[in-house]
Amino acid sequence: MSITIEDVNNETLALTGDSSVFIPGYSTCRITWDYTLSGVPLGISISGYKDGTSTTLYYKWTGNSTISGTFDVENVNYDSIYVQIRQTTRTSSYYNGAYHYRYVPYTPPRVYQSQRFTLDYVEYTPPSVSSVVLERLSDDNTTATLTIGGSGYSAVNFGLIENELQVNYIYKTGNSGTNCTAVTIDDVTVDEDGNFEATVEFNDTDTFAVENTYYFTITVSDKLISSDKNGILPPGIAALEIEGQDIYVGQHIYMNELTNTSKNIYFRSKTGYNNCYIEGGNGAAGSNGLALYDEYNSEYVVQYLGNTLKQLIINPDINLQYGGYIPKSIPQIQYGKVAKQWVTTSAPGWQTIDVTFGETFSSVPVVTISVADPSAQSVVSTIFRYYISDVSMTGFTINVYNSAYSAGVSYYEYFHWQAMAKQE
To answer: pTM value?
Structure first.
């Protein structure tokens, strides 16, 4: 007759070397029982106690006089485990034309063996990364620093193995880059509360190109677990700089670039060259105006002098939209106006107007119509009912019902329509 508990997690056992010692939150506590009492139906209940509160973990009520088995508590973190071997009794209930039997604890309780196991734990807290700070030492070169903060590390001896902290980092260029080989950071400082800090200074001028973004993953691990946290090293190019009367967006200021004293805003392209700038002051915009100059094509895209728009150039091959452009061959919006004439000689009825788009949409668009003001020959538009049908990438049909039928009288009805491409 016996009840035992032990750690059966191979990872934690490899650290403690003792199945009676547990690592809180990681060990697997196995309870094993084997008990016989002739002539008495037996059952078992297992409870876990934490901070004075109990939780039922397992129970089984049988009519057998011998009970045996095992039950595992994974990631155990209870202060103690309480096991009871108890007498059970049979109860019955009648339904669906038959008696059904089950076993429940005997009342009043008859406990034949009970045992409370106080668990012997290693005082362990897992490490975690609390902060990752990446910054460039200067906006116009490739030097940078990485500072990592963490907490919770327990510099303990598990029993068989001494715990040890390790901090690594990997990084890649842009989202689509390939991660470098993991680099271990030496000389990580840990204080008495288990908080730690590590700093890396990158001084190699070829390490982090000033125009690129770098994505880091920091891994902190000890002999049992590991924890990750991500960080980003942004491009070194300044988002906005002001020098004299000029404003530079997305680039650095170099003194040999300051060739005039007008109030200009310069924009930098991906290739690193000025491809356009907004010009003001005494430049082409005059003393009271504004111009947008395209250096690549050597022309003013917009030239606004005083109160007069002198020039506006829009590339005929694109339609502007949020976030970019779409070739004009794929239209976004088309619209028009159609009319229908009736010479009524009989009772009212339905007639149709077929509308063909000027250009074919890439998918079936959304079409709306509205009734325009009728001509002088028409009665009020309320005599008409209408709806849209057969919408396709090339056109649609307007179905119109005319309720006026004065013989020989002409009626007109006008419709404005608009077709809009669906946003993917």
So the answer is: 0.56
